[in-house]
Amino acid sequence: MNIKGFAVVVVVLFGVVSAFSSERMAADIAVMQAQPRVAGSQAAFAAGDYLAAELKKAGYTVDFQNFTYTRTRDLGSSLSVGGVTLGANAVAGSPNQAVTAVLVAVPGVGRAEDYTGLDVRGKIAVVVRGTIPFLEKARQAAEKGAAGIVIVNNAPGNVSATFGQLGPIPAVTVSAEDGAKLLSGSQATLEARRISEEVKGRNVIAKRTEQPVVILGAHYDSVLGGPGANDNASGSVAVLELARQLSANSLSERTWFVFFDGEEDGLWGSRRFVEQNPELTKGLKAMLNLDMVGVKVTDKLGLGGDKSLFELTQTLEANVFDLGEQGRNNSDHAPFAAAGVPVLFFHWGIDVNCHQPSDTVVDIQLIAQTAGLVQKVVEKLLAN
Ligand SMILES: [Zn+2]
Asked: From CA 161, how far away is CA 138, in angstroms rounded?
């Protein structure tokens, strides 16, 4: 269908035809992905301003929720063994120190019992990721007298890890491949180098009521070096277009459209939203979160969260599946779920370009279809 040269995707719901404008959404995506939108950066600020301006155009009151947090960044941590320097990530919260000592391969994940019969005093313990938290691994190693710890990833590639607070000894992670080369008795230098910076984040909130019944959310920040077309300009633009579609509809008087910042650094925007709006949050019937809805990785649309919301959505669209555990904690619905809000996460899977400079391509039709389904869910939720 083509109206005045604008391509549209027509979604029919309850006799109401809404036209999601592909051209307008493509233009939104182009603006959003022009540069990486790292929380606190000029580009993230510009993206927030763009969303706010578009939402105002659609007739909403727009509020910014400002918040700050501390982010630490790796400045080139390393692990050198026998003259070979391996790539390593300092665990966030690791003391910034260099340690030169002998490696001791601990059989296992670094629980107390894994150290039986080993002497790691003044040495660097090497343990495998998993089973217990990173901080617990470091505490066990420190308790046994280790001067540093190397945590080997239990999957291909390296991992970014955090202690969640200041850890007891310098700690780095290495890839599973590099970890396999680490032998007890080798002399090694572990260097943990991270900096801390204060980030000013900003959630963008479009509303027409002070007490919403439903929140539609998406994070609009991206990672360093990643333009984040799919992650998550796709979800942001879907929510923006939904705000436009619903603007002439009474549903918009009971819905907030929230664009979260600081998601990639640890769900800061959504956590701060829930913390600062406890009463509002308690009154919600649902929070629907869209993250990575522009590239079809899975055959079916992944949904994560509340069982009855899943079932409701399944009656509207059969081509869905339950993300289960993997849909629990990895995006902005998680803090709402933790506060007791029924949530549903919409997600088409993690594509190969995720968090890469190559995250530049999305399927506008897929975004429009997903947004159309979200609109049907909102219509159902607010019908009674
Ligand atoms: Zn994301």
From this structure: 12
**What totals of helices (H) and strands (E) does the chain contain, helices first?**
10, 19
Q: Compute the distance from residue 270 Cα to the ligand 1 centre, in Å.
A: 12
Distance CA 126, CA 110 (A): 8
Active site residue 54: no
Alpha helix (H) ranges present in the chain? Answer: 22-32, 42-57, 134-143, 176-179, 234-246, 268-276, 278-282, 307-316, 333-338, 364-381
Catalytic residue, candidates 263, 275, 317, 379: 263
- Regions of the chain short of the pLDDT cut 70: 1-18, 384
At which residue do the structure tokens 């360093």 appear? 224
How does pLDDT run across 366-375, given as a tens digit for each residue?
999 999 999 9
The pLDDT value recorded for residue 165 is 87
- Residue 82, number of CB atoms within 10 A of its CB: 9
Q: Which pLDDT score is estimated for 335?
A: 97
Q: 232: cis peptide before it, omega within 30°?
A: yes
Find the 285 Cα to ligand 1 centroid distance in Å: 23
Q: Give pLDDT, residue 232.
A: 98
Query: What pLDDT, on a 0 to 100 scale, did the predictor assign at position 6?
Result: 43
The string of pLDDT tens digits covering residues 162-190 is 898 899 999 999 999 999 999 999 999 99
* Spatial distance between the Cα atoms of 217 and 235, rounded to a whole number of angstroms: 8
**CA 43, 47, 49, 53: dihedral to nearest 10 degrees?**
150
pLDDT score for 9: 52
Task: Give me the sign of the Cα torsion angle 153, 154, 156, 160.
Answer: negative
Distance CA 62, CA 52 (A): 6
CA of 147 to the centre of ligand 1 (A): 36
| Beta-carbon neighbours within 5 Å of ion ligand 1 | 231-232, 291
Under DSSP, the state recorded for 148 is E
| 359 CA from centroid of ligand 1 (Å) | 12
Query: What is the pLDDT, as a whole number, of residue 91?
Result: 94
Burial class (CB within 10 angstroms; exposed 0-12, middle 13-18, buried 19+) of 283: exposed
User: Ligand 1 centroid to 80 CA: how many Å?
Assistant: 33
Give dist(CA 107, CA 94) in Å, integer: 22
